[in-house]
UniProtKB/TrEMBL annotation:
This is protein-glutamine gamma-glutamyltransferase. Ca(2+) binds at N389, D391, E439, E444. Belongs to the transglutaminase superfamily. Transglutaminase family. Its EC number is 2.3.2.13.
Amino acid sequence: LAATQPSTNWHLKENAREHHTSKFSSEELIVRRGQAFTITFNGAERPDQNLIFVVETGPKPSKATKTLATFDISSTASKEGWSAVLQASTSSSVSISISSPHNAVIGRYRLSVQSGSSSPASLGTFVLLFNPWNSGDDVFLPDKAECEEYVLEEFGIIFVGNKNHISSFGWNFGQFQGDILNICLSIMDRSLYYRQDPVTDVSHRHSPAYLGRVLSAMVNANDDQGVVLGNWSGKYEGGKNPTSWTGSGEILQSWKKSGFKPVKYGQCWVFAAVLTTVLRCLGIPTRTITNFSSAHDADGNLRVDEFYDADGNHLEKGADSVWNFHVWNESWFTRKDLGPSYSGWQVLDATPQEQSGGIYQCGPASRYAIKEGEVDLDYDGTFVFAEVNADCMYWNYDSATGKKTLIFSKSTEIGASISTKAVGRDNRVDVTSDYKYEEGSAKERDVFKKARKKLGLEDKFDPTAPKLEEIEQKPDISGKFKVAGSLEVGKDLNLLLVLENLQSEAKTVNVNMTAWSTLYTRRKVNQIWKDSMSVTLAPKEEKQFPIKIKYPEYQQQLTTDKTIQVTALCHVENGIQVLVKRNITLDNPAIDIQVLGEAKVNKEVVVEVAFTNPIAAEVKDCVLQVEGSDLLQGVLELRIPPLKASEKSSTKFKLIPSEAGPKHLLVNFSCDKFADIKTFKVVNVIN
């Protein structure tokens, strides 16, 4: 080679188009494995003579760990290793098509070339990603529309609320924006696995299953100074309330800017959304999944125990819990370690709930294995199976005597309306039947028994617990809470307690009722209301008792999750207790977005956001937060003056779209009385 450093033309536009990487805004070549890319360089004296290329990645590249390859020019691309095919040459330059193996380690590579006996000359660096469009890749996804959604789509919808009342909000994954790819590469290099043994860690980066597990640990801050610090206390001083984020970009950028200090704070959907961003960025097809009435079974007995006192207050006793909803991820890849039927969607969960292998990581658990009760297969099948299948046991606990009495058990409570966003549309798709057979069917119970057997739990109950108290008696009455009227923050909450006498003689019932504000994990925060009454029910009679909780009663106590748990513990004279409970999620008032005029690439367009204060009091500390990939850089924050009762505010701001196509604008409005009113609008940007 000549003494001068060769100059390289990476053909960024053409290669990016071929490799589905055009959305990255990078001066560096970004390509996908198992597919050829073309480069041209000059500075070679005899370009077609004995050129040898070297690609290397990681701290100590070697052929043994497949982090280094040397290859010369061949007539055809190799199916196995790296290869180079001559495309064209002149006296001063040469065009080469380089192919990587479909199972190459992903990450940043250094490329150099040498000719004859001269020392190698660097051609520069490029980034190699997973390739879901390539049939040889572990992440191959045959449906092109699914590749578009689960790898290339930067907008998502996350489902929240509870199983009786599902709501949702938009999220800006933003995996192609700014510096996100470099941040994702540095996440891999800061994991415990890399710190303990960098050479082995990098050599495993050909495997989506390995990286999925490592990244599920790195997205939470436990163990490894990872990206997001969880907080489920209801108090978020010193950080941002988890409900206030609208995208992953701000979180990942903050983590990098702070010198890789965990970002405060996250809850389950934040961990899941950030993991989606990272995995989509690296080329692993990924989506968020919401499980309603999700069990956190801390002791691995596929059973969740809940305790109540005589007044009907839910007690914080025991480590098990049921969350109104929980959000995790599914990623698509093969499971060579388990066999072909276990390939496809794999559950990963970055929320730090239980340790696995000594650190807070979860998955990949094959979704097929979960459905079939194969809880002994790698990884964390027992925990995920319990999240969607655990049985619930409700106990009355007397703190004076330590005595616990079973009120009732339920096997159909957990794992409802498992939800994800549709491909190419903003609708909800129910995937419950992919996780379990129909609730209450013989097949579903058989799978549950199979799972218990694999865990060495006997057929009925936990063998360590005393038997006598676990015998369920038949109740004399039944009860339920019905919602009467709307469930909106700022309005009174109207409920009906419906009690029915199941016996043919009259029954006297003493009812103790409470209402608590909770987090979405059903953790109690503030008591809102309590009441008691004594009622007599004639034989087979059904009676309704109206309950009204006024807005001023709950306004101060409500958490930003806007959830309330109401319970009625019914003490039937000479009979057993009956527990009636309901978790209620309130809706925020609406907010409206209008795009004024046509949205064109690189042209200003005005957007108007309108909000009407629905309550009979002033609201203050109003803030509007706006973001959207390809519509604006980062997050725009606007302060809005206080609004009197029933007053309407209208706020205008400008966008300069950077790319054509349907783009999602996300808006979040907060004030002292309403937290995080979110909405989104599709902006059709034209050239």
